[in-house]
Amino acid sequence: MIDKTNLAEAFSSFDETWSPRVAGDINEMQIKLAKLEGEFVWHSHSHEDELFLIIRGRLRMEFRDQQPVKLGPGEFIVVPSGVEHRPVAEISCEVVLFEPKTTLNTGNIENERTVRDLERIR
Amino acid sequence: MIDKTNLAEAFSSFDETWSPRVAGDINEMQIKLAKLEGEFVWHSHSHEDELFLIIRGRLRMEFRDQQPVKLGPGEFIVVPSGVEHRPVAEISCEVVLFEPKTTLNTGNIENERTVRDLERIR
Hints:
Two copies of one chain form a homodimer.
Chain A: E1 4-6, H1 7-11, E2 21-26, E3 29-39, E4 50-63, E5 69-71, E6 75-79, E7 85-100
Antiparallel strand pairs in A: 2-3, 3-7, 4-5, 4-6, 4-7
């Protein structure tokens, strides 16, 4: 049975920040939902491009080699593989991520914020 | 230079229905924006899963083997590869698609609604 996902309901099903939930599989990619608050760690993904679509809040995406990009609801950015970035939630965010299944949240960094075996929505 | 895309601005940049525009690349997948009006053709994609995220309007996704799924803004559905489906816009829709670059809009069907060499946003 193929069913839909309502983003508002799905976001209301968890509170944990910086811990993406898997909401669906599209071939070798996944749609993930994440709540972001404050700043994350600088990291990059060797092989994975990563799309951030803002649903609520405000996100500042920082880069080493260019000015930060500020995103609000209804805006998205694709961070290419290999590009070091740091997401900073200026206002607590609800974000849709679209990225390969192999993507680790902290990329090339492993620390206490690394999350493996992501939980699934529902 | 990595920049963001504002969905409202991007949707306002074209009028054509059933003719997805490419708005970004994420590894072997693409984010596409489509305006839908009325009903499309029954089709399936042999190898490609396809995500539909509704931004505006109302979409009814019809299937051969189950009841249709009705989607409104902020709701998404993943149609697995091989599953015959027919999108019907009950109210004119703006839809975000996430799917492999190889996805042809009419899947296994080729007719006057088939679109090749999709235009890109901006």
